[in-house]
Amino acid sequence: MTDYVFAPPALPSVAVAGEARRFPVRRVFCVGRNYAAHAREMGKDPTREPPFFFMKPADAVVPAEGTLPYPPGTRDLHHEVELVAALHRGGRDVPAEKALDLVFGYAVGIDLTRRDLQEEAKRMSRPWDWSKGFDASAPCGPVRPVAAVGHPAAGRIWLAVNGAVRQDGDLSELIWPVADVIAAISRSMELKPGDLVFTGTPAGVGTLQPGDRVTAGVAGVGEIALTIGPA
């Protein structure tokens, strides 16, 4: 038996819809600006350039329910609703036509972003980590297995704050479909079971305030609801 200096932390995991077992989380990959309208609102050209990625710590994944803490160090917390692919198989240099074989299921997630810190990092040519990888920055709903939902390629993806819809797009608007995103990641590092892939957000990202009620969903995958706690 391995002897540790202190007890290892609990393995991060996500609920599996309708089951007692949970999906263990190994890593969290996020693809940036994968909807053309969102790229435009961020001041970028939405042409089909190669996808780019950032990562979040596995323990940034928390249930998308209840009250989430408003993070310190920011005055501009933003919401970004995303379709999340949960992988139960791995691989390196996976061709796009076989990439969906790696997917166990899909969930609704939110990429929370400290936008003011991100903009400062961009201005100073610094990494984004502090703006993206903070505690509880990746709330995620239950994973629905492919056997139940298939591989969603079209359908509404939306987010509302206090009942007012802010983000309202369609999965068919993805610049790089899920299979292409998975294939692209596998060309840079070997994917493993337990990896989550946040696939990008549609236009309409905006600021969240303490006390805001956030609801979101992806057609055929599910809906989530949570509240932003006090600063």
Automatic annotation (TrEMBL):
* A Pfam family assignment: FAA_hydrolase
Would you say which domain of life the source belongs to?
A: Bacteria
Keyword Metal-binding listed: yes
Where does the Fumarylacetoacetase-like C-terminal domain lie?
28-227
Q: Does the keyword Protein transport apply?
A: no
> Which intervals of the chain form a coiled coil?
none
Keywords from UniProt, A to Z, are: Hydrolase, Metal-binding
* An example molecular function term from Gene Ontology annotations: hydrolase activity
Q: Which protein are we looking at? A: Fumarylacetoacetate hydrolase family protein
The species is Chelatococcus albus
Q: Source taxonomy lineage?
A: Bacteria, Pseudomonadati, Pseudomonadota, Alphaproteobacteria, Hyphomicrobiales
